[in-house]
Amino acid sequence: MTLSFSGRIWNFLTCDEDLILDMKRKSGVSDLVARILVNRGISDKSEVEAILNPKLRYTIPDPSRILDMDHGVSRMIEAIVNKQRVVILGDYDADGITSTCLIVQYLRLVGLVPQHYIPNRFNDGYGVSQRSIQNAINDEVDLIITVDTGTNSVAEIDAANEAGIDLIIIDHHAQLVDTLPSAVAVINPNRRDQEEIVESNIKHLCAAGVSFLFLIALQRKLKSIGFFEIEPNLLEFIDVVALGTLCDVTELKGLNRAILKYTLTRGRYSPGIVALTKAFKLNGISSADDLAFFIGPAINAAGRLGDPHLALNLLLEQNPAKLQRIAEQLVFLNDKRKCIEKQIFAEALLFIGKKGLSNNRCICVFSDTWHEGVIGIIAGRIKDRFMKPAFVVSFAKDEEVGKGSARSIPGIHLGQFLDIAKSKSIIESGGGHELAGGFTVLREKMPEFLEFIEANTPVIRSNCLDIDLSIFPSSNLRQIFSELQILAPFGKGLPKPTICIKRARIRNVRGSQVGGHLFISITGEMGSGGFRAVLFNATSKPELVKCTEASVGNLVDIAGYIDSNDQYPASIIIEDIRLSQV
Predict the structure, then answer these.
(1) Contact present, 146 and 168 (Cβ < 8 Å)
(2) For 3-14, how does the pLDDT look when each residue is reduced to its tens digit (9 = 90+)?
(3) How does DSSP classify residue 372?
(4) What DSSP character marks residue 508?
(5) Are 434 and 408 in contact (CB under 8 A)?
(6) Is 531 in contact with 479 (CB distance < 8 Å)?
(7) Confidence at residue 356, expressed as pLDDT on a 0 to 100 scale
(8) Over 213-249, what HEC string results?
(9) Pairing mode, if any, of strands 464-467 and 429-432?
(10) Cα 547 from chain centre
(11) Within a 13 Å sphere around the CA of 318, how many CA atoms are in the beta-carbon half?
């Protein structure tokens, strides 16, 4: 079996032709679209409709079906009516920041001026921090609302309760504790006792999505008691919800898909997002990729390298001059983050080579000099490079507790994995989702941790690349791209279709000094036609780059997806390359 330049096996998906014909007849889609949907396991007409035409009105559930929602709303009404002191405690990633923004903005509209606090990654750590609780106690607040955190923060919540402060928890993380914190409300679709709402897929909501449902329920109650003279338009907040949804890599099904589709179709964005597009010199937001690859990383950069309140201020600020200054700061931080990330990744690859880790079931690297703000990104890049679970640990100089981040492949659930390690006292703390997690580990426990992760990681082959469609260099890329846009937005749950361009001749290869990307000029087998292919982050894929450069003039098959924007019109974004089969 022939391997590609990056060592992968290509699997050309085949479809049941009867299913394709049936879908074309029932849903009126093209042959190409029908094939992609069948490849994704989608064949039911209602499923197809939910993908092609997701509607907010049909996917927003009655918020009262979420446990504790009505309790939380009632307590919030009490705070609003009595002008109580309220503080919002968020998290330092894009989901936590967007969730905090939503609650703060809405409460300002209804007459409250809440305090807000986003923890510092380096001083507070992950979750509800003891410092934030103590600040709330010192400020004599009446109500704490946690967003994107709190479900498993039992000790911290107890401390607030003992001081006589009520709490509303708005979260989406898996419940790891047997007994939920003693809060007025724990509004979390992933509580163990919460049933799924199928049409909405509430268990896949991020915290911003849960916060949006809380605001819907709150507004409904305020309206019923005659509170409003002018009722706020909650749809004015939906672009912020979409940003949190996309950045938290949620399943784009049900309500998540409807939120993102509505936002992109509507094309209206808050002043902070607009300021960032200008700072990046983008011609507006044209696709979900613009939010995911430009806006989201800049929002996250604040928490990774400095003060996450900078990103929150961007979303809350209205003054154009201030907004542009903040946006430019965030772009600067994001560029700095890229430089730090590039250096650490190079060091991690040297570590892997020196220790001979590439044949391990999973890969763990660690150092005393690595910036902990980017270790999650490094773990993701190692996972992508070796197609194995990756763990990255940063020990601050002379510190005995290291902070770690992990990324996994399908079939190995990191949240459960880290929970077992914690129960065995191998790590100090830890948790996460299926494919991403965070943890802390003692330096002296590292040998035991390395032994545990290697012994307990199953051997799962993930070096297979599924191909949806084969075409040739003479094919019309623009037409194919345009036809596939009916399926957008793409993301988790509905990834972009992978296209194979067969028997393409590499004319020349050119590297980019700025972004570290590789640009490849392609013609047909006999020199006819032509287009450009782009390999992003080429520096992290040396084998693929080396083989590609050595194949100039040869016939190759190129796997990737078609993209078209202001920078790269109708280009192939490369996933992999192999020599053409005879």
Answers:
(1) yes
(2) 788 888 899 998
(3) G
(4) E
(5) yes
(6) no
(7) 94
(8) HHHHHHHHHHHHCCCCCCCCCHHHHHHHHHHHHHHCC
(9) unpaired
(10) 31
(11) 1
d(CA 578, CA 3): 7
Is the torsion defined by CA of 22, 27, 30, 35 positive or negative?
negative
Residue 518 tokens read as 């590789």
Which amino acid, one-letter code, is at 73? V
Question: Which amino acid is present at 425?
Answer: S
- The residue type at 363: I
Which tens digits make up the pLDDT trace of 456-507?
A: 888 776 678 999 999 988 888 889 999 999 999 999 889 999 999 999 999 9
Rounded to the nearest integer, the mean pLDDT of the chain is 91
Q: Please spell the DSSP secondary structure of 275-296, one letter per residue.
A: HHHHHTT-SS--SHHHIIIIIH
How far apart CA 383 and CA 414 sit, in angstroms, is: 13
* Count of Cβ atoms closer than 10 Å to residue 466 Cβ: 13
Give the chain's radius of gyration (CA, Å): 25
> Strand, helix or coil at 170?
strand
Length of the chain: 582
| Domains present along the chain, CATH in parentheses | 9-52+464-579 (2.40.50.460), 62-235 (3.90.1640.30), 362-456 (3.10.310.30)
CB-facing half-sphere around the CA of 286: CA atoms within 13 A = 10
Token look-up 């990633």 returns: 93
Q: Is the pTM of this model over 0.90?
A: yes
Dihedral, 122, 126, 131, 136 alpha carbons, nearest 10: 130
Buried b (16+ CB within 10 A) or exposed e, 356-376: ebeebebbbbbbeebbbbbbb
Are 361 and 458 spatial neighbours (Cβ–Cβ below 8 Å)? yes
Nearest alpha-carbon partner for 289 in 97, 480, 96, 496: 496
Q: How far is residue 282's CA from residue 291's CA, in Å, rounded to a whole number?
A: 11
Which residues are CB-contacts of 511 (< 8 A; sequence separation ≥ 6)? 517, 518, 519, 538
Provide the 8-state DSSP code for 437.
E
Q: What is the pLDDT of residues 522-565, one digit of tens each?
A: 888 776 667 889 998 887 788 888 999 899 999 999 999 998 76
Burial class (CB in 10 A: 0-12, 13-18, 19+), 45: exposed
Chain-centroid distance, C-alpha 446: 29
Q: Where are the beta strands (DSSP E) in 417-530?
A: 429-432, 436-442, 464-467, 469-471, 499-511, 518-523
* Spatial separation of the C-alpha atoms in residues 582 and 577, rounded to whole Å: 15
Angstrom distances, CA of residue 470 to CA of 14, 464, 493, 497, 504: 11, 16, 22, 11, 12
CA torsion, points 545, 551, 555, 560, in degrees to nearest 10? 0
- pLDDT, tens digit, for every residue of 311-365? 999 999 999 999 999 999 999 999 999 999 999 999 999 999 999 999 999 999 9
Mean pLDDT, to the nearest integer, of 119-148?
Answer: 88
